[in-house]
Amino acid sequence: MDRKEARRQAEQLVARMTIEERASQLKYDAPAIPRLGVPAYNWWNEALHGVARAGTATVFPQAIGLAAVFDEDFHQRVAECIATEARAKYNAQSSHGDRDIYKGLTFWSPNINIFRDPRWGRGHETYGEDPVLTSHMGVGFIRGLQGEGKYMKAAACAKHLAAHSGPEGIRHGFDAKVSPKDLHETYLPAFEAAVTDGQVEAVMGAYNSVNGEPACGSMTLLRDILRGQWGFQGHVVSDCWAISDIHAFHHITATAPESAAMALKAGCDMNCGITYLHLLAALQEGRVTEEEITESAVRVMTTRCLLGLFAQDCEYDKIPFTENDTDEHDALALKAAEKCMTLVKNNGVLPLDEKRIRTLAVVGPNADSVEALIGNYHGTSSRYVTFLAGIRRYCEERGIRVLYGEGCKLAADKAEGCALCPDDRIAEAVLCARAADAVIAVVGLDETLEGEQGDASNYSASGDKPDLNLPASQRRLMKALAETGKPLVTVVAVGSALNVPEGDAQLIAWYPGQAGGTALAKILFGQVSPSGKLPVTFYESADDLPDFTDYSMKNRTYRYFTGTPLYPFGFGLSYADFQVKDMKADEKGVTVTVRNAGMMDAENVIEVYVKAVESADAPLHPALAGFRRVALKAGEERAVTIAYDKNAFTVVNEAGQRVSGGKRFAVFAGLSQPDERSVALMGTAPLKREITL
User: Fold this and answer.
1) Is the same domain home to 352 and 299?
2) Same domain for 313 and 333?
3) Per-residue pLDDT reduced to its tens digit, 282-328
4) Three-state DSSP class for 56?
5) Does residue 84 sit in the same domain as residue 38?
6) What pLDDT shows up at residue 453?
7) Which residue among 117, 130, 182, 239 is the active-site one?
8) Which of 31, 33, 87, 163 lies at a 20 to 30 A Cα distance from 469?
9) What is the pLDDT of residue 461?
């Protein structure tokens, strides 16, 4: 059904509603209108990396891990799977009258905010720090979730518009001061792509203000840019209770009716919260008109029509409950976990030689933790395989003994409350290490140490990280393990940048989803080559960065960072020897020949970066302009063509205008960025060509 027809149906339906009924449909928990055959509908649902918070569902790697795959087509497949499970659950639950929260088909995903600072607790919900990677991954997710049938399979929502990336503790009243250049070069491109390329059905406003305007009541963001410049036709929803923030924390208005009016007039159609209970009061006070309430009601009912919720011929109504949590979906979750894990250090320890290792020590607070698999905004899997369980299963089949010691708690000094001394599990971990041929230390964080304000917390109520170090208890454990002198592989379950110096090899596992343990074992023993790439810069220290509240991009992310990173954006090692040669570049794209000169089949990512040579408005360093994941058998060689992102040859000036970057451009293609640190770590430099448009 096209939007024009869906809107026509919505207009006819809304025309039969009273003004009270129209206003009632603008709350996330919309009540039934029995006389019109409109059932109750709860708009609040989540599907960041699987259908979330509604019982059993396949749990894929957290969004930041999916970003590390650098493959929008694969990401679309994941989203298609999520949409199938969404319909399977919705069809079954609604047929039993269950229309509660998290049971609908309108999903408040993806989160396409830019992960500008590694301290931000919610950063692992995003696709990283780069606007091009975020744009492509976001569009892939939206297309997969919404589908291409007569009706929309599920409705995606791009959030949070805009300039929203911490600090969590002050988000409800924070005013992000953003220059026009940074806004249009960094913070908005992924949202524009979601609207113009992905045809996303919904956009969510943010808690914070942007340059003095509350995001959910911003004429600049919602009216002028979103609907005016980009031509957005869907509906806008507030973040939860963000409209009440307008008077309670931003102090822009004095009363709830004023806040409701401000948001509605700016174009926020739906309220996650209760402030739109005051819409009728705002109407009586003359702050809004019946026409404005009616228009928002039409927009939200258009979405329900597009989903086929009032139709008799929706093709997705036939998806049975048994299409949820299938073996096929579990296999896809395993593939995703294998592809996302990122090898950042390897002094020859990996892959482990299963013929030489007879005893393996697996230690660390995240080794046997389900929480370390899932991140936040997750569903409940029936198939969790922890890192320890995956390694043990693999080793038992090959006669390798596994010794396990927790080592320490995630952040607490003691594992047992009655222990007289701190570090009461380190001795056990060291004993395991000394008795083993190699040690796998599984450390890092989980959603209790980096997450959303008020949802889970770390050292404060904010959910943000105070620094880029492991918690002190884990630092002491890692030091003790390193002192044993045994081969040490550090596996870091995390959603952001951490500096973990110990280990002969280091694998960033992210929060890899339900199949994380199986994937880790296959990578450790060389059944699968690691192929993830970092979607964020790993810095040495937070001291290298500006103040957390500074939203300027100066000295932030790989495009503007002036220091030397620990591990750069786009970096990731492989077990195979990939070679890139024979580069050809023109204004349409880049073609290179890629060879797997190694001894095993493997995947890798070819990355293209562009620098406008003549423009003073270009980012400080070459910026990502395209990428493509390639799978090659050992010894195989293939020509690969990568198209540029549509903005590759443009720049954004200080006025926020996207303009031509000039005539001359340096184009790089290879397995990493062209920066010195990447070249030193990779041992090879990307190829370079200069083109003139």
Assistant:
1) no
2) no
3) 999 999 999 999 999 999 999 999 999 999 999 999 999 999 999 99
4) strand
5) yes
6) 83
7) 239
8) 163
9) 56
